[in-house]
Amino acid sequence: MSKRAWKVEPNEALDLTFFVNAISPDEFYNAHYQDVQIRWLQILSESEYSRITKITQILPVSALATVFSTFNVNTLEDIIEFLTHMDESYQANVRGTDYSRIEGWFKILCNHRDDVVDSFHIIQQHNIHLRWRESIQPQIKMVTEQYTHILSELYSLQSFQLLISKFLGEPEVESDYIIYMCTYIKPIAVQLSQNAMAVHQGPPGYMPLLSNLLSVIVHESLHGFGGTDEAQREQNIYLEKYPPLMKKYEEMITTWKSGPEEFFVIAAETYITEKLGIRSYAQCINYLRSQNGGMPFSEVIYIKLREEKPETKPEWKGYGDWLVHVMRNNELINFD
């Protein structure tokens, strides 16, 4: 078996997809790119702006990026080619089991392909992709080349994947891990298909702290864990008992645009980053109390994990199974 490798790369198709969020009317995204939005509002006609940002009304930009990643779409030309010719035959090109995750998004995209390809044609007509290649791609490459070397020298990908798979109770992933660094993705990071993620590159000319990048890698690797749906059902029952926690949950979904499993993922991320020495206990608590305005339910789960270290026990079946057990049997702290 060939040695698995960390790969840190720029990706034109993904960055241009996230560019739509950056100039969109949604302040959650454009607040980080006000100069970019103002500039392109001056350049684009009202009709062009409306047609580009229509994508956000069809499906989340992160979902579109995940579809593109699944089908190995890398450039603007790839985007237009893919959208122009997408049909059911593309299913044969999807690797592994990733298609089940994107199937709903793929069908929506099929139904709205003309609108989406029109958006990217406008991006092409204004040479936004050429501007990206000339000014942004070289900056990202400076960072990605260094990160590829540092990660390969300091962290074994095989050991990392083994730790994550054991914690989740799932088969070990035996493939390279790709980190796509993007300019227009703030304030989110995105778990993609094919054992990959997308994250912000950091300020031009500066590398983000390695500990921050590793924490994001852990976080994104935990999304979609086995047993998520059942754990979410138990979570709903649990949160209904505690209105302040339910309010935090609703705020997480609406204000911070997180998914319904975010409490679980944040808790596990914090636990694993402490195990790996990426964060100290004090840093973990500070993170849990500051992330998204505070994540009290995540903190409770983290403390329980820390006390029990359940993944070290012979009966361990995976994080999802454990979550269902501790919630169903009222083994977490009582908030009354």
Structural class: mainly alpha
Largest sheet: spatial strand order: 1-2-4-3
Instruction: Tell me, rounded to a whole number, the average pLDDT.
Output: 92
Instruction: Report the principal-axis shape.
Output: globular
Please compute the radius of gyration using only Cα atoms.
21 Å
Please estimate the helix content: 55-70%
Main beta-sheet annotation = 4 strands, mixed
Strand content: 5-15%
| CA distance, first residue to last residue | 53 Å
Give the uncertain stretches in residue-range form: none
- Tally of separate helices: 18
Number of strands: 4
What letter string, H or E per element, gives the SSE order?
EHHHHHHHHHHHEEEHHHHHHH
Strand and helix map with partners:
Layout: E1 6-10, H1 12-23, H2 27-30, H3 34-43, H4 46-53, H5 55-58, H6 61-70, H7 76-85, H8 98-111, H9 113-125, H10 128-154, H11 157-168, E2 177-182, E3 190-192, E4 196-200, H12 210-222, H13 228-240, H14 243-254, H15 262-275, H16 281-290, H17 296-308, H18 319-328
Parallel strand pairs: 1-2, 2-4
Antiparallel strand pairs: 3-4
